[in-house]
Amino acid sequence: TRNTAAPAACATDECLVNGHGKVCEDMGQTCRDREQGTAGDWECVCTPPSVGSATADAATCTLDECCATCAGSVCSDASQTCTDADMGTDDDWYCECRAPAHGSATGGAATCEVDE
Fold it and tell me: Residue 32: in which H helix or E strand, if any?
């Protein structure tokens, strides 16, 4: 049975009210209300390939150069692993040889050596 004596409880998507969604959109981000009906839990989420999010504010987005550029394929084409040492710093990605070989190189494929 329905309780008709009480007002309806409506969940509000905070991204659609009070300009919260615009805060995210102005930064090229997506607004997400984690739990409609809970105040203050909306968040801005970075657009891939960038990563990051922030609650009730624009996010600080970082970029994984191994995913976003051809860096990942440079390493994988050489059967190596790509690592972005610091996603907040540009041009610091490196390729690393896979075991049993060893070696690494920043910004390109590594010269791999195997101990005999």
Answer: strand 30-33
